Amino acid sequence: MRNIWIICRKELKSYFSSPIAYLLLTMFALIFGFFFWNAVGFFVVEGAEMQMTGQMGTMNINDQIIRPLLDNASVLGLFFIPMITMRLFAEEKRTGTIELLATSPVRDIEIILGKWFAALALYACLLLCSALNFAFLFRYGNPDWKPLAIGYLGLLLQAGGLLALGTFISTLTRNQIIAGAATFGLCLMLWVFAWVSGYDSATWATVLAYLSVVTHFNFFGEGVIHSKDAVFYLTVIFLGLFFTARSMESLRWRS
Amino acid sequence: MQAVNAARHLRAVDNLLPTQSNFLSQMITVQDLTRKYAHTTAVDHISFSVAKGQIVGFLGPNGAGKTTTMRMLTCFLPPTSGTAAVAGFDVLEQSLEVRKHIGYLPETPPLYPEMETAEYLRFVGRLKGLKGVELDKRVDYVCGRCAVADVKKKLLGKLSKGYRQRVGLAQAILHNPDVLILDEPTAGLDPKQINETRDLIKDLAGEHTIILSTHILPEVEQTCEHVIIINKGRVVATDSVANLQGRARDRETVVLEVAGRGAPLDPARVQQRLQRVAGVAQVRIKNQRNASAVFEAESRRGEMVRGDLARAVIESGWDLNELRPEAMSLEEIFLQLTGSDSAAAAAGKQPSEEAASAPQAAKESGAAAKEPQR
Q1: Do A17 and B74 touch (CB under 8 A)?
Q2: Contact A96 B106 (CB under 8 A)
Q3: Strand partners for B296
Q4: Strand, helix or coil for residue B23
Q5: How is chain A split into domains, by residue range?
Q6: Residue A93's closest chain B neighbor by CA?
Q7: Nearest by CB to A96, which of B77, B96, B108?
């Protein structure tokens, strides 16, 4: 446990002592802020129109602002995750510091978990930027906080899985760009797989759609935890970390 | 292997005995260690052992398998076959224990450019299991020891090569390991830094068992008590530096400085006279000044000629200012053991220039040894 924390702390420090963390935070805050501004603007205009035309409809902050924004955040995360994970192992391999870690009295799995937790923590910081936006809704409106909390849980689980896969890819190369590009490609694939279910219901399409990380977020976005979705995310996390561990082991045999 | 068995046996009666590292006199035992890569065998059944407190030079041309061997000892690479034990622990089966007992400086110091020196050392210290007051004390101690205290607050990425190397050494000795493994610790340093680093390593020898790899021969002569010479993945010689020098010296090379008594000296006459001494194969004039000249006399195989040479000089009415046997340098031994014939011959032909030409030849033979692997 102590070793995991030592590695995690070091990783967080290097995220925050370089421009990486600040750049990602700024970009995420700007883009998400833009989404938020749009969503709220649309909500207000729609509300005003309803009043003017005398339509009787229900307006719901949770359904009309929070939920679409959580979906947006889930997709936005796909773009940020590669930038978080690409350096994790690739850079250690390039500079040779991996030799320090691998010859210290620390288990491989402790190194991997430490790095993964640090990546997850940075992602949580990004989500915190989005939470600032939602705070305004609570100040001026009265949304239900529980679906929001479950939505965030879903986002963290989804990111956890993708970060684990990204960590794995980062062990495969000593070039950060390659690691980043490959992770980005994988993230996008796991997103667009969901689209096949739109026009085909054959078995392969169902399987492909099931593999999409975004499909599994839908219920989380609505504020519902389906064990099926949670298990899917946990499986991806486990597999990603497992592959990372195997890859590190083969690194020793090959290098 | 015995040490490993002993260690395994010891574990059963652990509580009754002092710690294993105190108990075993052999700090490092390597038996038939082999490491294969896809198409090449980097290390081929090497065996050696290092006693506690020894400082051993691991010598070989580039690509001889030095780094691979060191990586196996530090548990970075698992061996393909064979066993290695450090401080009584097996590198494969008790890897974590081995790592606790080892300080390792890889060829490029493993530094994080975005960290400050002190911050980095604290991180490494924690990684090696130090904490609290002890951690602070050790960091301060190694900073002083390796002369990096004045860059404690500097980013590692901005340090000069010499400082980077010393920070690398500092992290290796941080947890006061029994065994230090240093991969080319002086590579890329300037002569002053090389001397400082050598002194530091010699200084550390009392407390730690040290293996240092190098392809620079004077380094071994200056810092090490023992040498293990490897070439193309095999051990070609393992002995103490003095023995190795003696072993290769089956003939004598003597340097004499002769002066004329008040009169100018004719070096050619002296040369002729020395040449007539029984057992002398060859005499060369190395250097001549007004009143004196330096000669180098080489004896025939198995002949000792120092006494006769001295007598010849004195009896001919000259002054003998200096007479010393020239030890065969490790370079020549090294070339004999590892080098291609041409390189050895080149070094043997012109002993007066050996100091200058031999390292060059060593490099060439090293390159030659490396080429087929590519």
Answers
A1: no
A2: yes
A3: B255, B284
A4: helix
A5: 2-254
A6: B110
A7: B108
Same fold, B1-101+178-193+204-247 and B250-325: no
pLDDT for residue B248: 59
ipTM of the complex model: 0.88
Alpha-carbon distance B185 to B105, whole Å? 7
Query: Among all residues of chain B, which has the CA nearest to that of A104?
Result: B99
Interface check A40 vs B, CB under 8 A:
no
Look at A6 and B126 and tell me if their CB atoms are within 8 Å. Answer: yes
Chain segment A101-145, per-residue pLDDT in tens: 999 999 999 999 999 999 999 999 999 999 988 888 888 888 888
Give contacts of B127 with chain A, Cβ < 8 Å: 3, 6-7, 100-101, 104-106
Per CB-CB distance under 8 Å, the chain B contacts of A10 are 112, 123
Contacting B residues, span 29-68, partner chain A, CB-CB under 8 Å: 37
Residue keyed to tokens 């006399």: B297
Tokens in use for B132?
């609290």
The span from the CA of B237 to the CA of B245, in Å, is 12
Distance CA A35, CA A72 (A): 8
- Domain boundaries along the sequence of chain B: 1-101+178-193+204-247, 108-176, 250-325, 330-373
Contact of A105 with chain B, judged by CB distance below 8 Å, is answered with yes
Tell me: the pLDDT tens digits for A217-250?
888 888 889 999 999 999 999 999 999 999 998 8
For residue A169, give the amino acid letter: I
- What dotted CATH number matches B1-101+178-193+204-247? 3.40.50.300
Q: Write out residues in chain B with pLDDT < 50, as ranges.
A: 1-24, 341-374
Q: For the segment B124-165, what is each residue's pLDDT rounded down to a tens digit? A: 999 999 988 999 999 999 999 888 899 999 999 999 888 898
- At residue A243, the pLDDT reads 96
CATH of B250-325, one of 1.25.40.280, 1.20.1250.20, 3.30.70.1340, 3.90.1150.10: 3.30.70.1340
Q: Count of CB atoms within 10 A of residue A26's CB? A: 12
Using CB atoms, pick whichever of B76, B78, B123 lies closest to residue A103. B76
